[in-house]
Amino acid sequence: MRKKRVMVVGPTQCGKTSLVRLLEQDGKPVRRTPDMIYGKVTMDCPGSYVENADSYKHLIAASQDASHVLLLVDQSRPIDIYSPRFAQAFTKPVVGVITKTDLKPENRESCLRQLKLMGVDGPIFPISVKTGEGINELKDYLFGSAVDK
Ligand SMILES: Nc1nc2c(ncn2[C@@H]2O[C@H](COP(=O)(O)OP(=O)(O)OP(=O)(O)O)[C@@H](O)[C@H]2O)c(=O)[nH]1
Ligand SMILES: [Mg+2]
Question: Where does the pLDDT of residue 32 fall: very low under 50, low under 70, confident under 90, or very high at 90 and above?
Fold first, then answer.
């Protein structure tokens, strides 16, 4: 059986690659992703896939190789981009992630509302790669507590 990866999904510039770097712990520089990037433990999806409903089928197909699907919402710019109940299209466990929690705390409620509208009924992790908030909690959830931090 192929190894399953954590699939990281979210709009352009929401913080996907920044999160992937922390999950991979490989120290590679952040770069724009024109297409899916397969890391050792992650799949970094292009933002355009969630910005265009015609691409949802690619996300759903790619999620067959996923252990979890992380759906990211950017607290600094909580644009309403996902279709209602989008999360329910996946057969893998879906995890809501609110990114950039060091910015615009006043947007937290609208991010939570958005995740509920998307049909995320699994856990929700507020994270910041700047302050480190929520990163260890997310890693524990995804990989268990044995992982290096
Ligand atoms: N303040 C703050 N900025 C962040 C955080 N996470 C990411 N950023 C910034 O947000 C910008 C986009 O981050 P990326 O990780 O490249 O986002 P992405 O979703 O991979 O972007 P695309 O691949 O272009 O769709 C960068 O300037 C990051 O430094 C965070 O937790 N806090
Ligand atoms: Mg990226």
Answer: low
